[in-house]
Each structure stands twice: as C-alpha cells, then as structure tokens.
Amino acid sequence: MLRLSNRRASAFGMALLWSAALSGCGEESAETSRSPVQAVTDACALLTAAEVQAATGIAPGEPVDASQGQLPMCNWPAADGSNMAFVNVLVAPSGNYKSYDEAVEKWAESAAGMGFPFEADDYQEVEGAGDVGAWIVDAGMLQAHSGEIMVQITTDVAEGRDKLEAAREMARSAVARIQ
Predict the structure, then answer these.
(1) Which of 14, 33, 35, 36 has the smallest set of CB atoms within 10 Å of its CB?
(2) pLDDT of 165 higher than 80
(3) Are 133 and 174 in contact (CB under 8 A)?
C-alpha cells in the first residue's frame, strides 16, 4: 500500500483535485478528439527501469498500473520489496502555462475557488522540467507542465541522492516520450 505523510497526501490530493477540475474545463464534446492526457494510456511506459535506477540509485521492480479513472498513473516498487511505490508517475491535464508565475497565480485561484488553502511558498520553480516546473517542497513532488499535460513525479532516492534532481531527470524522460 502507498503510504504518504499527511503533508504529502494533502499535496497529492490537491494535485488530483486540480487535475480533475482542469479536465472539466472547455467546451469539447464527446465527438471531439481525445485530450492529450487521454492519449497517454500507459504511464508505466513513460520511464524505463534503467532511467528509474539511474535517477534514484534504487533498483526498481516491475511497474504497476495505478491509474485513477482517466488519470494514467504508475507505481514503481523497489526490486527488493522495501518500498511498494518509491516512484509514482501521474499524468494529468495542465493549464498550458506560459510561466511559473502564471501557474502559481492560477493554482492559487483554483484552490481558493475550491475552499483549499494555498501557500505559494510551498512551491519552488524548477528549470528543465517541462515548460513550467514546480517542486512541491514538503511533498517531495515535481510537477512538470508541458502544454496541456502535466507529469507529476514523486520519488524516494538512495542515500546521498537528491530527490529533486532525480524527479527532474525522470520528468524530462517522461515528458519527452509524451511529446
């Protein structure tokens, strides 16, 4: 079972809620083409075992599809069984942000509209992770926004490794496979 701290679970829940809210935006009908997120049918195919191990320093087991409704999601367990989801990859709709500042402003508006607290200081801009990258500091979660898609990476790493750098490396690979 995936275990998250209260802060990490709260951030994860917010990401899912924002994704659900964003996915309902627009005037598309069932007859129009599928959204970019719907075109990603296998979040587990966005990374290879070699990429996961190179980034985290942990040998992964076989990835497990953990999709939530229309949101593709994948959990990578540790090969030694010590962690059932040391890497989590989630693909969700994005607001096609042009800048980090625009994204933070939209997230704050969205959170306020849903009655959720939002602290911009909980986020850190990340270069090299999609068009707009945001590290959710306390959650240890990277959101890489590229056009209408967000790839969210949550990871644990081997001792001496940096979570943000590992997440950025994996986000680059995942985003490249989507584009």
Answers:
(1) 33
(2) yes
(3) no
CATH class of 6-18+35-178: alpha beta
Q: Could you state, in order of their start, the residue ranges of all structural domains in the chain?
A: 6-18+35-178
Buried b (16+ CB within 10 A) or exposed e, 117-144: eeeeebbeebeebbbbbbbbeebbbbbb
* Contacts of range 106-112, beta carbons closer than 8 Å, 24 or more positions apart: 107/18, 110/18, 110/21, 110/22, 111/14, 111/18
DSSP state of 155: E
Number of continuous H segments (helices) and E segments (strands) in the chain: 5, 7
Q: Would you call 55 helix, strand, or coil by DSSP? A: helix
- C-alpha distance across the termini of the chain, in Å: 31
Instruction: Kindly report the pTM of this predicted structure.
Output: 0.81
Give the residue from 82, 32, 24 showing the smallest Cα distance to 58: 82
